[in-house]
Amino acid sequence: MKSIWELIPRPIISVAGLINVFLRKHRHSQRAGGMPIGADGKHIPWLTYPAIEFLDGLDFTGKSIFEFGGGGSTLFWARRARDVTTVELDPSWAEHLQRIAPPNVSVLHETNGHSYAETPKTLARNFDVIVVDGAERYRSTQAALHQ
């Protein structure tokens, strides 16, 4: 007598396994306040799952993070780093983030795209990690490289 696993084609078993891992571990499709959350109910960034798992394996304790564009990633970084500074172009989103952010997060609002990209240079400090995930990505990346 054949087992059920011998009757089901291998590709179907593989796909079922991937779906199981996705549903069990990530559940990225769930959102809270317009931001993605993981299976543990905590906010996660809009990144690929392998990227999130890679970042989960690194120690950011004691690190300062600067982030172009805030959201779920801001709260993700806040759980891992000493402090997070994020800059936002959208005033209502910046206000929302400020309301829900933990004490180790500073939310800045910048209305001018050019000034937005230059924000890290205007602060009297250096950052250990700069994340570009917002508006003005090219100029923000250029500014980050020269930080």
Report a brief summary of the structure.
The chain has 147 residues and is α/β, with parallel strands linked by helices. The protein has seven helices and six strands, in the order ααββαβαβαβαβα.
What layout of secondary structure does this protein have?
Blueprint: H1 4-7, H2 10-26, E1 31-32, E2 35-36, H3 49-56, E3 64-68, H4 72-78, E4 83-88, H5 91-100, E5 105-109, H6 113-122, E6 129-132, H7 137-145
Helix pairs in contact: 6-7
As for the CATH topology of the largest domain, it is Rossmann fold
pLDDT < 50 stretches: none
Task: Estimate what percentage of residues fall within beta strands.
Answer: 15-25%
Q: How many helix segments?
A: 7
Distance between the termini: 67 Å
Major beta-sheet overview:
4 strands, parallel
Descriptive key words:
147 residues, alpha/beta, 2 domains, two-stranded antiparallel ribbon, 6 strands, elongated
